[in-house]
From TrEMBL, chain A:
It is found in: Cytoplasm. The active site is at 11, 130. Belongs to the HisA/HisF family. IGPS catalyzes the conversion of PRFAR and glutamine to IGP, AICAR and glutamate. The HisF subunit catalyzes the cyclization activity that produces IGP and AICAR from PRFAR using the ammonia provided by the HisH subunit. This is Imidazole glycerol phosphate synthase subunit HisF. It catalyses: 5-[(5-phospho-1-deoxy-D-ribulos-1-ylimino)methylamino]-1-(5-phospho-beta-D-ribosyl)imidazole-4-carboxamide + L-glutamine = D-erythro-1-(imidazol-4-yl)glycerol 3-phosphate + 5-amino-1-(5-phospho-beta-D-ribosyl)imidazole-4-carboxamide + L-glutamate + H(+). It comes from Brevundimonas albigilva. It holds the Pfam family His_biosynth. CDD domains: HisF (cd04731). Keywords: Amino-acid biosynthesis, Cytoplasm, Histidine biosynthesis, Lyase. It comes from the Bacteria. The gene is hisF.
UniProtKB/TrEMBL annotation, chain B:
Its EC number is 4.3.2.10, 3.5.1.2. IGPS catalyzes the conversion of PRFAR and glutamine to IGP, AICAR and glutamate. The HisH subunit catalyzes the hydrolysis of glutamine to glutamate and ammonia as part of the synthesis of IGP and AICAR. The resulting ammonia molecule is channeled to the active site of HisF. This is Imidazole glycerol phosphate synthase subunit HisH. It is found in: Cytoplasm. It catalyses: L-glutamine + H2O = L-glutamate + NH4(+); 5-[(5-phospho-1-deoxy-D-ribulos-1-ylimino)methylamino]-1-(5-phospho-beta-D-ribosyl)imidazole-4-carboxamide + L-glutamine = D-erythro-1-(imidazol-4-yl)glycerol 3-phosphate + 5-amino-1-(5-phospho-beta-D-ribosyl)imidazole-4-carboxamide + L-glutamate + H(+). Heterodimer of HisH and HisF. NCBIfam families: IMP_synth_hisH. GO terms for molecular function: lyase activity. It holds the Pfam family GATase. InterPro entries: Class_I_gatase-like, GATASE, Imidazole-glycPsynth_HisH. The gene is hisH. Residues 39-196 form the Glutamine amidotransferase domain. SUPFAM superfamilies: Class I glutamine amidotransferase-like (SSF52317). It comes from Brevundimonas albigilva.
Amino acid sequence: MTARRIIPCLDVKDGRVVKGVKFVGHADMGDAADLAARYRDQGADELVFYDIAASPEGRTLDYGWIRDIARLLDIPFCVAGGIRSVEQAARCLDHGADKVSINSPALERPELIAEMAERLGGQCVVVGVDSRFEDGEWVVHKYTGDPDARRRAGKRTLDWLDQAQGLGAGEIVLNCIDQDGVRRGYDIEQLAAARARLTIPLIASGGAGAPEHFRDVFRQANVSGALAASVFHTGAIAIPGLKTYLADQGLEMRL
Amino acid sequence: MSEVAVVAYGAGNVASVQFALERLGASVRLTDDPAVVADAERVILPGVGAAGYAMTRLAELGLVEPLRAFSRPLLGVCLGQQLLFERSEEGDGVRMLGVIPGAVRRLAPEGDLPVPHMGWSRLTPDRDDPLLDDVAAGAYAYFVHGFACPDGPATLARADYGGAVPAVVRSANRWGCQFHPERSADTGATILKNFLSLPC
């Protein structure tokens, strides 16, 4: 078995962690490296760094910055933001990232998933999916990092998950946009439906507001990990207390 | 200060291994030079991704024989552990370094467990070994793999993931970790420190 993973997500802009509500409007939450070191010490199981400015600015992540983070951390971390080619993904890994997460570029050209999996191994290829409930079904959105560019991707979420897995993705992060930043709990129904469709690990994202939300998503949607941002950055939920609580609830946690 | 050569052959998590060793005060040399590998005090063979690609790279660089012949402490990490075995069933089959008998197979856990095996699993040591000094039974290590080594006489510690997964193996002066010690917090650091302390 594996312990359920608690994964703080750091949305980074110019080395600072920012967090928006429903993806729009951002507040400064501190220095990214400082926050990463704090989460490491608090027992985070993994970290995700998302360079929110990279894709809108038509660039990819700062490799030197990845290297600095890799030096600092003794837990795994994933990077995302503007990765559009196998070469860029390989360079992120060469500089010390353990996984790369791709989202809109995979929607534009799904074969990118297969190319990355073949060259780098599927285990380091994470596909991030931004999903929203519209007209009675879950649909994928793209360019969600940029309020002016965000739009429907023209795919049903569950279909896209099937396709991404079939192309060789090693893990899915399903970000339920309706829930993002509003702290009313994870979208259990959608995540359980996704879990039932997938054989690769699934990470829940969007909606964490209380320890019970983590308990519910692990118990009811059987996800491998739960990602959250603002509740950790603001200190509303402390990771050590959260993990102890979840262990007391009978979930396997790394304490 | 311990000196260690990390084989940088374009198929691995070289930077994170390097940084983990540097955090322990080791002097790290990244190399793809067969002569440097052959003369090294101790060697770490990292690796992620496909076994076929990794073996092709090792062959192109002339590293297969120096690694096979290396008799001082060698540690294979993740794919690097798998490469120590004879062959892998990945693709149409891949011939590997063959310093430990047996074949690497696709992970097929019982129950409804996701593949790849990704995350923190507990280590259960099978017997004492200097590599595992001060590693408590049940300590967590970070795994990411879709193939697994054969469970045999070389196994030093196992993880349970819908069946026994060899987590640490040893044959003579060659050790392997299926998990990533460089990303396994204090447990991983202890194992790397133990490796750096092994007599040459």
